[in-house]
Amino acid sequence: MEENNDVEVVEEVKEAEGIKISNDVIAVIAGVAASEVPGVAAMSGGLTGGITEALKGKKNLAKGIKVDATDTTAKIDVNIIVEYGSRIPDVAFEIQNRVKKSVESMTGLKVTEVNVHVQGVNTESLSAESMQEEEAVEDNKENKEDNE
Predict the structure, then answer these.
(1) Residue 87: inside a domain
(2) Considering its fold, how many domains does the chain have in total?
(3) What's the rounded Cα separation, in Å, for the pair 40 and 146?
(4) 88-107 and 23-35 helices cross at what angle (nearest 10)?
(5) The whole model's pTM is what?
(6) CA distance 123 to 63
(7) HEC string of the chain?
(8) What is the CATH number of the domain that holds 35?
(9) Residues of the chain falling short of pLDDT 50
């Protein structure tokens, strides 16, 4: 007795004629998703992003994101600066997953590529910790000298 378990897959096609989603909108969605990943210190937007941010006085959520979209697909490049001590492959993988999921769910576009470009490593917190440690060592030396 063979049972035929053929399942008909019905794919819902959403045609949004006349609606074009701007690359800037896709970039903002991708930027928010990427910036929420642990280990991402900042988005790297280059010189023009910094100038725009300074002039407008507000944060550019699309900073560091380049989008190449067609009517049905999107390719996204994400430029980031990672926190020192973060495992870069894990951070990049998580960015790829979150960006793809966010853009596809909000726009209906198929994301074919999410390329993550690590532009630098943030060592500012490391520098602050080092300075605090050096100050503590100097304070201890001064205390010892005062006690002698």
Answers:
(1) yes
(2) 1
(3) 44
(4) 140
(5) 0.68
(6) 20
(7) CCCCCCCCCCCCCCCCCCCCCCHHHHHHHHHHHHHCCCCEEEECCHHHHHHHHHHHCCCCCCCCEEEEECCCEEEEEEEEEEECCCCHHHHHHHHHHHHHHHHHHHHCCEEEEEEEEEEEEECHHHHHHHHHHHHHHHHHHHHHHHHC
(8) 3.30.70.1350
(9) 1-3, 7-15, 47-54
How many residues make up the chain in this entry? 148
pLDDT at 125: 65
Cα 41 from Cα 23, distance rounded (Å)? 24
What is the extent of the structural domain holding 85? Answer: 23-123
Contact 82, 21 (CB under 8 A): no
| Cβ neighbours for 108, distance < 8 A, ≥ 6 positions apart | 14, 16
Domain membership flag for residue 85: yes
CA–CA separation, 123 and 114 (whole Å): 26
